[in-house]
Design goal:
Aspartate Aminotransferase, domain 1, Aspartate Aminotransferase, domain 2, globular, about 35% helix, seven-stranded mixed β-sheet, binds 3-[O-phosphonopyridoxyl]--amino-benzoic acid, alpha/beta
C-alpha cells in the first residue's frame, strides 16, 4: 500500500484517472489532442485528425466556432457565475425562450443541468414527483431498455442496459424493468435507415405493464436511436407503438436525446424526425456544441403545470444544481443556436444524410463486416468478433484509423460515427476510404 510519503508516479500521465478508458493501455501509448478547428483535431505530434464522431457526438457545428468562443469570452468578463436557486441570469431566460421555440409540441418548459447523466436523473425524478403530485403515488416503476445508455448517475445506470456499466454497482435502483433491445442481425443487417422488421418488440411493454400492473408504472425512457451501443436504429413503427402503449396506460414517455438532439437526424430533435412528442426530453452535447458542459430537460406544459400548485412561496421542485443555467453555458448555447440557424445546419444534416448513407453502405463486402446501419448523420459498421477475443478487432480498427488520421468511436465490435454537420461530401468520402483501409488491413 502506498503510505503517502513516496511519489508513485513515474511519468506525468499517471495521476489522471481517465474515464471509460483502459488507463494502463492508454498511458503506454497515449493519444492526446491539443487543438481543434472545423473538421479536424491536431494531436500532440502535430498530426491532423479528421473528426468522424463530432468529438463524442457533441460538436455538431464543427470545432472552434468563433461566435461561440467569443460569446463565452464576453460572458466570462461580464458575469462569471450567477446563483441558480432563487436568482436568475438573463441568458437563462433568453435561452429558454429560444429552446422552447425549437422543441416539438407542447414541450414548453426547460430545466437545466450540466451533463446528460444529470439530465436523465432529473427527468426520472420529475416523472416520479409528477405522479405523486397528481395523487398517483403508486406509479414508481421506471422502464429502460437493454443496450440503452443514459449516463452514469444511479438513475441512468439503473435504467441503462449495458451490463459492464451496471455489474459493479450493486442493486442500483429498485423497481426498474427493461424492454428488449431492437438489434437483430439476422433480420435487419445492412438495413438502410429504419429496419422494416421489429415493430413488435415494442409489444414487450404490454407484457411488462401486465406483469407489474399499469397502476405502478411511472415512465419509460429510451433513446430514439441508441447511440453508445452502436447506432441501433428503431424499426419502423416501433417508437409509435411505445408512444401509444404509454398513452393507453398513463405512463410518461421520456426520449433521451442527448445524442439525437440538435440536428443529428436532420431535424432539431429525433422527436421531430419520428413525429412523436415525448412527455420529457433530455438533451446535452450539441446544446453548446460541446464547448461548455450543459444539459437540459424539456417538459410538456401539463407536467410543469402539475408542479405549480400549493402556496406560491413554496419551492415546487426540490431539485437543481449549483451550475444549472450557468451564465457561460447559457452564452455558449445561445451562440450555438445562432450558428445552427445561420448555417442552416439541421437542413444541411438532412441534405447530407443520403450521401452519408451511400458512403457508409459502400463498405459492404469488406472483410469481417457483418452489418452497416445508418440514420440521419449517424452510422455504424459492425465487425464479426474474433474467436475468444471480443472487441479486439474493432479496437484495432479504431487504432489504425487514428494512425491514419481519423477519429471514430469504438464500442464492442462496432465502429460508430457521426461527423459534425459541416462536413463536406469530400470529407465523408475521406472518412469512408480511411475506414475501409483500416478494416481491410485488420486481420
Ligand atoms: N444519455 C445518452 C443517450 C447519452 O448518449 C448520456 C445520456 C450521458 O451524458 P454525459 O454528458 O453525462 O456523458 C449520454 C452520453 C460514445 C459516448 O462514444 C456516448 C456518450 C458519452 C460518451 C461517449 O458512444 N453518451
Amino acid at each position: 500500500m502506498p503510505d503517502g510519503t513516496q511519489p508513485r508516479q513515474t511519468n506525468t500521465l499517471e495521476p489522471y484517472w481517465m474515464p471509460f478508458t483502459a488507463n494502463r493501455q492508454f498511458k503506454a501509448a497515449p493519444r492526446i489532442m491539443v487543438s481543434a478547428k472545423d473538421m479536424h483535431y491536431t494531436d500532440d505530434q502535430g498530426r491532423q485528425i479528421l473528426d468522424a464522431s463530432a468529438g463524442m457526438w457533441c460538436v455538431n457545428a464543427g470545432h472552434g466556432r468563433e461566435k461561440i468562443t467569443e460569446a463565452i469570452r464576453t460572458q466570462a468578463g461580464v458575469m462569471d457565475y450567477g446563483p441558480a436557486f432563487q436568482w436568475g441570469n438573463p441568458g437563462a431566460f433568453d435561452l429558454s425562450a429560444r429552446l422552447t421555440n425549437l422543441f416539438p409540441g407542447d414541450l414548453d418548459y426547460v430545466f437545466y443541468a450540466n451533463s446528460g447523466s444529470e439530465a436523465v436523473d432529473t427527468a426520472l425524478k420529475m416523472a416520479l414527483a409528477y405522479h405523486q403530485l397528481r395523487g398517483d403515488a403508486r406509479r414508481t416503476r421506471l422502464i429502460g431498455r437493454e443496450r440503452g445508455y443514459h449516463g452514469v448517475g444511479i438513475g441512468g445506470t439503473s435504467v441503462g442496459g449495458i451490463s459492464n456499466n451496471r455489474k459493479h454497482f450493486g442493486n442500483l435502483l429498485a423497481g426498474i424493468d427493461h424492454l428488449p433491445h431492437t438489434h437483430n442481425l439476422s433480420e435487419m443487417a445492412f438495413s438502410r435507415g429504419q429496419p422494416d422488421w421489429g415493430a413488435h418488440l415494442a409489444d414487450d411493454l404490454e407484457r411488462i405493464v401486465a406483469l407489474h400492473d399499469p397502476s405502478t408504472m411511472a415512465a419509460v425512457i429510451v433513446e430514439p436511436v441508441a447511440g453508445s451501443t452502436g447506432v441501433l436504429v428503431p424499426p419502423k413503427g416501433y417508437l409509435e407503438k411505445l408512444r401509444s402503449i404509454c398513452d393507453t396506460h398513463g405512463i410518461l414517455l421520456i426520449f433521451d436525446e442527448v445524442i439525437t438532439g440538435f440536428g443529428r437526424l436532420g431535424n432539431p430533435f429525433g422527436a421531430d424526425h419520428f413525429g412523436i412528442v415525448p412527455d420529457l426530453m433530455t438533451m446535452a452535447k450539441g446544446l453548446t456544441n460541446g464547448a461548455v458542459p450543459m444539459s437540459a430537460v424539456a417538459a410538456r406544459a401539463g407536467i410543469y403545470d402539475t408542479f405549480m400548485q400549493g402556496p406560491p412561496h413554496m419551492i415546487e421542485l426540490f431539485h437543481g444544481y449549483t451550475y444549472s443555467a450557468h451564465p457561460l453555458a447559457c452564452a455558449a448555447a445561445l451562440a450555438t443556436m445562432d450558428v445552427f440557424a445561420e448555417d442552416d445546419l439541421f437542413n444541411r444534416g438532412k441534405a447530407l444524410a443520403p450521401v452519408w448513407e451511400d458512403a457508409i453502405h459502400g463498405l459492404k463486402g469488406l472483410p469481417n463486416v457483418i452489418d452497416i446501419r445508418n440514420l440521419g448523420m449517424m452510422g455504424a459498421v459492425e465487425l464479426v468478433p474474433r474467436e475468444g477475443a471480443p472487441t479486439t478487432r474493432a479496437y484495432d480498427v479504431f487504432l489504425k484509423c487514428y494512425e491514419k488520421g481519423l477519429l471514430v468511436r469504438q464500442t464492442g465490435d462496432i465502429i460508430a460515427m457521426s461527423p459534425p454537420l459541416i462536413a463536406t461530401e469530400e470529407q465523408l468520402g475521406e472518412i469512408m476510404s480511411i475506414l475501409a483501409e483500416a478494416i481491410s488491413e485488420t486481420e
